[in-house]
Hints:
The chain is mainly α.
Amino acid sequence: MTLPPLWRNRLITVGAAALALWLGAKLAEQAYFWPILITGTLSLLSLRRLLALPVEGLLLGLALFGYLAGNRGFAQISLAGNFPLLPAEFVLLIGGLILGMQSAFGRQGIVQRDALNLAIAIWIGVGSVRLGFDLKAYGFSAMRDFALVYYAAFFFLAQYAARDDRTERWLQGCLLAGFAAMLVLYPLVDHFADFFLSTLTLRGSPLIFFKGDLVGTMLMAGGVLVYMRLESYHRPLATVASLVLIGAGLTTNNRASLVGLFTVTLLLLLGRRWKFAATQATAAVVAGIAILFIANLTNLSWRQTPLFGVYERVASLTDPLGQQRYSGEDTYNKGDNNRFRAVWWRTVFDETIGGNPVFGLGFGTDLAAGFIREYYPEQSDEFDARSPHNVMLTTFGRTGIVGLVPLLLISGLLAQRVIGAARSGKPTLGLWCAAWVILVSACFGVVLEGPMGAVMFWSILGLAHGRDSLNSQSDITVTPPLHAGPKTTSA
């Protein structure tokens, strides 16, 4: 028995109204789990139908946009009340289940047989074994530190999603939209902090809130990605968009992103791609002359211009022990920042060498304890950072040499792919370059230890590798056998 269309529509309307009333009551009680779950599911199904994209690709794209546009605010949204089901973990849960089912049915293997896939799989495996020994001793603290490793699973999720052309375009579109949103929202948060911190909130936490050093890193990565993606279509637009993003990145006072930009430019030169370097150099000279000219007209010392701040940030990069003095309004503390890192890095290295250099000190171990005793002997109760602002040392401290070697291999393979993509003109060059900028920044800050940087890095890396693998397979052609012509005899 089937209901007439009129009665079916009436029942759907009544059910939807009852659901809306119930969800409204939950929202009034500040119980957000079911409203978020139901609304998100319906929205996801609608988007899936509208865009004809797989669920895992949709979720990954929305996460990439969210971490760029909302940054730390988006990262701390809990989808399950007091239980820490955060956006990255939710996407991994759903995407992992889908990939697991696809692999079980033999449609697609999760780990491909190549050096990058194997290096990442080994890194995750080593970390997982190390975690098995640390959970009992440190509990949730060990699991929290293990996020450094399990975020690498986004590589496999993005690699799988990248094999579909429409999903790949969706993911790159989400990246570009996220960079544009960050470019607009970051200064708005700075100028209207009360609105974003007090009004636009969920459970008392801001929905949009930026970690300054990560903004600089992402804007630099976005500048390189946009340039490489648009260069072949519209070079003037690529140049302008890239310079705007990189210029905005310079205003964040983040030095690690400068190192990332400089080193990726060197890799591009090694790959015989000089136009990006020439564009940046030309823009830097023109901007410098313009700033000095305006300063001369207004009787300002060049020390009072933004150019002096950039100069001191660059100069501080050659002062690893913080022995020089800096006088800029935004750079006066760069020497102390350098000493901060130098002392912490040495402390973690010495403790790991003296403790367990092969397998590390483990997840959950307080890598800041010795550093605090030396650097902040009177302020230990106020220091809550857990990572020594260097992903290589964090990995060495927690997993020892056996965990550091795969990560070094991943870094070497990434540098090789940047150079190779530059020489061959692959369309994925921008993705490889963006991943490199983020990785270099992670060697000077807390980037891959949290979802705001880790989800971006591993997803971009997986997207680039997935597209290259697909393109290399499509380039393989079977050459037909050569058949000899009919046999003839001469007279």
